[in-house]
From TrEMBL:
Pfam families from the UniProt entry: PSP94
InterPro entries with a match to the protein in the record: PSP94 (IPR008735)
GO cellular component, one term: extracellular region
Secreted listed as a keyword: yes
Keywords: Disulfide bond, Secreted, Signal
Gene3D superfamilies linked: 2.20.25.590, Complement Module, domain 1 (2.10.70.10)
Family: Belongs to the beta-microseminoprotein family.
Main location: secreted
Signal peptide: 1-21
Species, as recorded: Pteropus vampyrus (Large flying fox)
Localization (cell): Secreted
Protein name, entry field: Beta-microseminoprotein
Length: 115
């Protein structure tokens, strides 16, 4: 039983390390007696309880009873030749490409990505 628990803990900790998600939480600001079924984001836009949306900053957010949770959805290139290559972010597709600095038409090999 302990071996199985230890094994699960090791797998979980490895998964958490690899994911490295960039998330944050904004608690709802309630006044006493307020039973609101919505969340208000930083831009002042209200969202229904249990709804999900994507922001223009490539974050996926959700409205819960306690507030808004948001996480980055763009995978960031981590292991590539930073001297020879550069990363370019496409905000419309929420994705990066890694290309040669001297010849942007050529892509570079990336061995690791983080979210």
């Amino acid at each position: 039983m302990q071996k199985a628990l230890l094994c699960r803990l090791m797998v979980w900790s490895t998964f958490v390390t690899l994911c490295n998600a960039q998330c944050y939480f904004m608690p709802n600001m309630y006044t006493p007696g307020d039973l609101s079924n919505e969340c208000k984001d930083l831009d002042g836009v209200t969202h229904p309880l249990s709804s999900k949306w994507k922001t223009e900053n490539c974050e996926e957010c959700s409205c819960g009873q306690d507030g808004i949770s948001c996480c980055n959805i763009a995978a960031i290139p981590m292991n590539y030749d930073t001297i020879k290559c550069q990363k370019i972010f496409n905000k419309e597709t929420c994705s990066y490409t890694v290309v040669e600095q001297k010849d942007p038409g050529k892509t570079c090999f990336v061995s690791g990505w983080a979210i």
